[in-house]
Design a protein that fits this description.
This protein is α/β, with parallel strands linked by helices. The chain folds into two domains: 120 residues, Rossmann fold, CATH 3.40.50; 66 residues, Winged helix-like DNA-binding domain superfamily/Winged helix DNA-binding domain (Arc Repressor Mutant, subunit A). Helix content is 53%, strand content 14%. Strands 2-1-3-4-5-6 form a six-stranded parallel β-sheet, with helices on both faces.
């Protein structure tokens, strides 16, 4: 399994943690390199086990998933983070985005969505559950409507093509889907996304999408 996605799971509910580990381990391209019952343990394991992706609950004892995300992204920027959340938890989702999480799935959602999110993040992409994406974008648009945000000079650095791609990120589309829609190569999309993140000085596709929404691009 040398090419498998090395996955670390952080979840304080034992049954949920064990079920996730058991089911995800059945996927031929995923290797479970550790499980943690709280955020502090997750950070320690991440430093030792070198996962490609961390699947973490937001609300955990000692250290929560937001701090796990912030610490991991700071110390191990190549490690992607998928956050498990409940439907009515907007504030924590916003905080996780700012901390650098790349994907968000509902705890009670289909296992296939969690697997897809892990794979997307391992590829350097991101994923927002549609219900979460809609509420996140709506909230930023609501705030923006009340007080017009100051013009962010970082956006002036983007090319027309990068702006076009940026507008698609909030939909959770994968690079291949964006490439097909715009009739360009998938590798070209990946290069544009990397350039967008660098120019906007953000850690993830999701954070870029939310920043764009706040500026009125979405």
């Amino acid at each position: 399994m040398s090419n498998a996605i090395r996955l670390l799971i952080a979840e304080d509910e034992r049954l949920t943690r064990e079920n996730l580990a058991r089911l995800l381990a059945m996927e031929t391209d995923i290797e479970i390199v550790g499980t943690a019952a709280d955020g502090e343990e997750a950070i320690g394991l991440a430093r030792v086990r070198a996962p490609h992706v961390i699947l973490t609950d937001i609300q955990m004892p000692r250290v929560d998933g937001i701090e796990v995300t912030r610490t991991v992204r700071s110390e191990m920027p190549n490690v992607g983070v998928v956050v498990l959340t409940i439907y009515h938890d907007d504030a924590n989702v916003f905080a996780a985005i700012k901390a650098g999480a790349s994907a968000y799935v509902l705890k009670d959602g289909p296992l296939e969505e969690t697997i897809a999110a892990v794979r997307a993040v391992a590829r350097g992409e991101g994923m927002l559950h549609p219900s979460i994406a809609a509420r996140v974008i709506a909230e930023f648009q609501r705030v923006s409507a009340k007080v017009a945000p100051p013009k962010d000079e970082r956006f002036t650095e983007l090319t027309d093509r990068e702006v076009e791609i940026l507008k698609t990120l909030a939909t959770g589309k994968r690079n291949k889907e964006i490439a097909d829609e715009l009739f360009i190569a998938e590798k070209t999309v990946k290069n544009h996304v990397s350039s967008i993140l660098w120019k906007l000085q953000v850690n993830s596709r999701s954070e870029a999408a939310l920043l764009a929404a706040k500026q009125g691009f979405a």
